[in-house]
Design goal:
Structural class: alpha/beta
Number of strands: 14
CATH class of the largest domain: Alpha Beta
Shape: elongated
Number of helices: 11
Largest sheet: 6 strands, mixed
CATH architecture of the largest domain: 3-Layer(aba) Sandwich
Strand order of the largest sheet: 6-7-8-3-9-10
Radius of gyration: 23 Å
Bound molecules: adenosine-5'-diphosphate, magnesium ion
Helix content: 25-40%
Number of domains: 2
Strand content: 25-35%
Length: about 325
């Protein structure tokens, strides 16, 4: 039964846990360690985290493809554990691995999907979906002639044949070149504008920043932050000066910077330190002077407004390393 509050929520998750049993003397793996989140209807919600964080595991549980170990999840107002078949009627899923028959045309594949879902006007629905993902002109070509980006967009279309309320996309642009990535973003925005709530996972900071209304950051099976991209960055409330240092310089550099005026805090940033200050432009010269006075010559000094990577760094002490997409294989 849906309460009035539920009506506004596309996804509700409380204390969600996944424990993979490690057979043969192997340890169990706690892939998801008690996640709470809500996704409102109409949102593009991002689930951002590095490789192995637990993104796919979470999506698969919400899509009823993997049993939930503990906790509660409702999708489209339906309890996932109690009524998985009903959940499946309301969701579309495009998973990381795209499995498309290369010898079919895009139109044939979509028509097959429409038949599987017993769509009333398959030809009409196919034409509508092909237009939605920008593949009308390529519809009669075999899929093996499609680029990586076109295959992702066709996969998006197949996930939409039954007009799902909620669309799950697991790393929709991983492995795509920047131009194809931008096209997929356009299709996601268009699908969202047509009324579909979207839950997408990504390891790309820019994708989360540009595409998502709200997001949650996951690391090692736990949420480390959640909010709008702007609110997450604003919470840091400071600029970031990153100084490149040798490992043995970290400690003396921290000591030297302890007296920096306007300093908020310092964290390790891989090959150096990230110094959070209220006014970065004003502090850069002081940072360099304090380090040089202590006999430390930083390899690089950069000043930036906080990014989602800084949000991740502030929460975990590590960089997410997902900023730049690798080119398509
Ligand atoms: N079928 C499985 N059996 C055991 N461990 C798994 C399985 N699938 C994923 N894992 C582990 O669970 C953790 C989270 O994986 P995953 O959800 O795939 O992360 P992500 O999608 O964020 O890269 C990782 O440590 C991964 O090795
Ligand atoms: Mg994954």
């Amino acid at each position: 039964m849906s309460t009035p509050l539920d009506a506004d929520l596309a996804i509700e998750v409380r204390g969600l846990v996944k424990r993979y049993r490690g057979g043969r003397g192997q340890d169990d793996i706690d892939a998801v360690r008690g996640i709470d989140l809500v996704v409102r209807r109409g949102e593009v919600f991002g689930f951002l985290g590095p490789n192995g964080a637990g993104k796919t595991t979470t999506v698969r549980m919400l899509c009823t493809l993997l049993p939930i170990s503990d906790g509660h999840a409702k999708v489209a107002g339906v309890d996932v554990r109690r009524d998985p078949a009903e959940v499946r009627r309301h969701i579309g899923v495009a998973l990381q691995e795209v499995g498309l028959d290369p010898t079919q045309t895009g139109r044939e594949l979509l028509e097959l999907q429409c038949a599987l879902y017993r769509v009333a006007d398959p030809a009409g629905r196919c034409a509508e979906l092909l237009a939605l993902v920008g593949l009308s002109e390529a519809a009669n070509r075999t899929i093996k002639t499609y680029s990586g980006g076109m295959k992702r967009r066709l996969d998006l279309a197949t996930a939409l044949v039954h007009k799902p309320q909620v669309l799950f996309l697991d790393e929709p642009t991983t492995g795509l070149d920047p131009a194809s990535r931008a096209t997929v973003w356009e299709e996601v925005r268009r699908i969202n504008a047509a009324g579909t709530t979207i839950f997408l996972t990504t390891q790309y900071l820019e994708e989360a920043d540009q595409l998502c209304d709200r997001l949650a950051i996951i690391d090692d099976g736990r949420l480390v932050a959640a909010g709008t991209p702007d609110s997450l960055k604003a919470e840091l409330g400071s600029d970031v000066i990153t100084v490149g240092l040798r490992q043995d310089e970290h400690r003396p550099a921290r000591d030297a910077l302890a007296v920096l005026p306007g300093m908020d805090h310092v964290t390790d940033a891989g090959e150096g330190l990230a110094v959070y200050v209220r006014d970065g432009a004003a502090a850069v010269a002081d940072v360099v002077r304090l380090l040089v006075d202590a006999g430390i010559r930083p390899g690089t000094v950069t000043l930036a407004r906080p990014s989602l990577d800084d949000v991740f760094l502030a929460s975990t002490g590590r960089r997410i390393e997902g900023g730049a997409p690798e080119a398509a294989a």
